[in-house]
């Protein structure tokens, strides 16, 4: 594939917590950054209510937000994400934020950035309430701004390799080969140190740790009507 084909295109990822970007779709972000895509990451919260406090614990509720902001900045460096924006919402409260104001803020970002691709969580399949809430608001913002570009929902692991049990068909899934970008993904995992410290596999020698990652990351298409079979590119 021509790796310069996407140069200068823009991707906006709107997630809930520091680490969503790395743990869920870090390979894809790294791949597109290497191809010259300008990536903006929005994290609704600073993950300040995370239960993992380091191992042995060295964080508390007061220090966690700042630590996780630093970690996310470092992860963005590994992935090639150029711009990072926080919405300054308290962790675990995204679903309680006044929805209209949240949609308005995200819509303003979409208007400003004019992204070719928007990534967010599926409002039901996102799992965590913060994920579902930011996904719902981002989807509404995307619709409100005229639906230029493409919207995709991120998915966990290889669940969408067989999407039927989630009510999707293979035609509605994009599958991105991230094999060449797993070193960057691993570095981003390690940057989120307070979250990954207790996961022993993350700290194994690189060649061993890398075997834990799948070759593909999967995305559900928002516009199911234009689904034309498994695509290998989001743009
Ligand atoms: Zn999350």
TrEMBL record:
Domain of life: Bacteria
Residue ranges of coiled coil: none
Database matches in InterPro entries: GlcNAc_PI_deacetylase-related, LmbE-like_dom_sf
SUPFAM superfamilies according to UniProt: LmbE-like (SSF102588)
Name under which the protein is recorded: LmbE family protein
PANTHER family found in the cross-reference section: N-ACETYLGLUCOSAMINYL-PHOSPHATIDYLINOSITOL DE-N-ACETYLASE, N-ACETYLGLUCOSAMINYL-PHOSPHATIDYLINOSITOL DE-N-ACETYLASE-RELATED
One matching Pfam family: PIG-L
Molecular function, one GO term: hydrolase activity, acting on carbon-nitrogen (but not peptide) bonds, in linear amides
């Amino acid at each position: 594939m021509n790796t310069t084909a996407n140069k200068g295109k823009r991707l906006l990822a709107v997630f809930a917590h520091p680490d969503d970007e790395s743990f869920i779709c870090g390979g894809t972000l790294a791949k597109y950054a290497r191809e010259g895509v300008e990536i903006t990451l929005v994290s609704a919260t600073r993950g300040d209510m995370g239960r993992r406090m380091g191992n042995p614990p060295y964080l508390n509720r007061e220090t966690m937000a700042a630590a996780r902001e630093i970690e996310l900045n470092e992860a963005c460096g590994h992935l090639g994400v150029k711009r990072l924006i926080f919405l300054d919402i308290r962790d675990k409260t995204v679903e309680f934020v006044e929805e209209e104001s949240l949609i308005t803020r995200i819509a303003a970002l979409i208007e400003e950035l004019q992204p070719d691709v928007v990534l967010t969580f599926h409002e039901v399949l996102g799992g965590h309430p913060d994920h579902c809430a930011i996904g719902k608001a981002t989807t509404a913002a995307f619709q409100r701004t005229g639906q230029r570009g493409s919207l995709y929902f991120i998915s966990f692991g290889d669940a969408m390799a067989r999407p039927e049990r989630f009510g999707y068909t293979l035609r509605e899934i994009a599958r991105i080969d991230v094999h060449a970008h797993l070193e960057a993904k691993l570095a981003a995992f390690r940057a989120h140190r307070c979250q990954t410290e207790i996961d022993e596999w993350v700290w194994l020698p690189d060649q061993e740790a890398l075997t834990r990652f799948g070759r593909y990351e999967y995305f559900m298409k928002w516009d199911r009507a234009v689904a034309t079979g498994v695509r290998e590119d989001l743009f």
